[in-house]
Amino acid sequence: MKKQHIIASLLAGILCLACNHAPKEDRATEEERIFQTKTAPQGGIREMTDLTMDGNVEIKGKTYHYKISRTSNHQLPIVKDNQENRYYDNEINLLITQDGGKQIVDKKFIKKDFANNLPDAKFLTIAVLDGMGFNEIQNDRFTFTVSMCCPQTDFCQMLDLEFDTNGNMSISETSGYDGEIPFEEVTE
Question: CB of 68 within 8 A of CB of 53?
């Protein structure tokens, strides 16, 4: 029995070594696998991958469906980082419907929509609209968290975006985020 344990351990060790010696391009970190991007030609404008998230939530016994779609918008001003890399900004579409098809919200957001809610609106000149994620239902209101980030950094400003079941919207500084925002870096 002890001999089988030793052989199994040796085989496991060999397998680990074999996996660790994969060609460099095959050894992407977990972060690199998560942060998928569209590639740009050398010196070209970089952009994030298109992304769609959706889900169902319940308020007072009624089921609602939300869909968040992020796409690059080539019509918005280009964002530059401190190394003069250029990035397309994004727009985010939010659709909330009630079962039966009643539309509650169908709105396109760009980062300019949040300028009045940031402590320093100048931040918008160096950041892209990075993502939006569903956070929670609070006081019968849909709460989403929106992030604007400097490309290829963790420097972000986040805001809470709330909607009631009639589609009325309010924006505030984030109170904490428990949901999932797909933060993505942009690379060539």
Answer: yes
Per-residue pLDDT, 59: 95
Give the Cα separation of 164 and 179 in Å (integer).
18
In a domain, 18, yes or no: no
- What's the domain count of the chain? 1
Q: How far, in whole angstroms, is CA 162 from its chain's centroid?
A: 18
Are 103 and 95 in contact by the 8 Å Cβ rule? The answer is yes
Mean model confidence pLDDT for the chain: 77
Report the predicted TM-score, pTM, of the whole model to 2 decimal places.
0.72
CA 4/CA 144 separation, integer angstroms: 54
Question: CA-CA distance, 54 to 132, in Å (whole number)?
Answer: 11
Q: What phi, psi does 5 have (nearest 5°)?
A: -65, -45
In a domain, 21, yes or no: no
Helix, strand, coil percent values for the chain (each to nearest 5): 20, 45, 35
